[in-house]
Predict the structure.
Amino acid sequence: MYALVDCNNFYGSCESAFAPHLKNKPLVVLSNNDGCIISRSKEAKALGIPMGAPFYEWKAFCKNHAVTIFSSNYELYGDMSQRVMSILKEYCSQLEIYSIDEAFLLLDDSPTLLTELMQLRNAIFMQTGIPTSIGVGATKTLAKLANQIAKDRQENVFYLDTNTQTALLQTIPVEKIWGIGQRLAAHLQKLNLRTAYQLLCADSKLLRLQFNVTLEKTVQELQGISCLQLEIPKD
């Protein structure tokens, strides 16, 4: 069983962790030289501020809507990432740090797993001030999709099991699947493979012949066959 722990709006959350008065307020973080918007609080997202937008195009808008602006502070973000990952390592030794704000965990399935993960999420927030979402699935790809769903759940923890999988995957566009970009999605849509569930039901070996082995593995991962193992650096 895999879990993906993702820090919500990470750069912005790092900034607001040291500025409690900004809780529930719109804020954005800018890239080097304050060029583009690279992180947004959920309140900033609700205002319609897009990710990656040139800041000069939104500067007046942010001022008019009382959006707090931060220049990026990568030293802070690196330190906060290490704190989060240390907490995760204490909980689970089988861990792959996927990015500065994401990590995969390899876990044993148990009746108390979701309760444990909610406790883990609370521990991360209490010790760092960083909110997280945790998605659980039989494979890394399913855990990624579960994480997307978790972000919209009040508890921010979601297990994509076989009982809920069919209905939910029918609602997820194929381009939202980990590793499938817009270009590949366009080709799949021409084959009437428009949702994660439709891709799950496809013939993986036929898709390998039409595309590549990576897509074959993605289909198998959606089917619950683990093809992508944890990548844990050797000491």
The first strand starts at residue 2 and ends at 7.
